[in-house]
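Input for the complex:
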Amino acid sequence: DTGVSQDPRHKITKRGQNVTFRCDPISEHNRLYWYRQTLGQGPEFLTYFQNEAQLEKSRLLSDRFSAERPKGSFSTLEIQRTEQGDSAMYLCASSSRAGETADTQYFGPGTRLTVL
Amino acid sequence: GNSVTQMEGPVTLSEEAFLTINCTYTATGYPSLFWYVQYPGEGLQLLLKATKADDKGSNKGFEATYRKETTSFHLEKGSVQVSDSAVYFCALSPFSGGYNKLIFGAGTRLAVHP
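Predicted:
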């Protein structure tokens, strides 16, 4: 078990460009979450997958944002036509469906996005 | 709706001092409650949790008790160390068990000096 990994760790882009982030959850976890954290704030929920199905999307997730989890393993989060307000840390978390840790989300190190 | 309110930081303490970080919540139903910690340069880590009223979560000398009557989940530690310097987040998930998005407070930065 190597934990949740995210790639890249840092991304600097110009306004208007598209960016894509990847998350690899803990291997036996079928639940995957994306959050966004801005400076000085707690993480805010963006979206949730159970296996490959996207079951909830926050109102924070505008039409420019899309997330996928095609085979129920890794997930990608794409932001199209980035804006300066998209600058934030994007966090991925995963959890298992059952057992003692069913309630517990394990977080990756995050991808820090800076939009110039 | 569901929300979490934490005391504002930073909290600055000397080593071996007693720590309390207040957390109160608003929730419909019976949430699970969590404390996560973020050390400098690292990702969020679960510190402790409680899934029902009167449960006490504990880990690494930290404790928090789920108080339904006061809708609180205050974090305490009897004697802090410099290595406890971090940002602490209180969070809730609206329903115990199953899928749950987490709703976080704004975080409280703790600085412990020798």
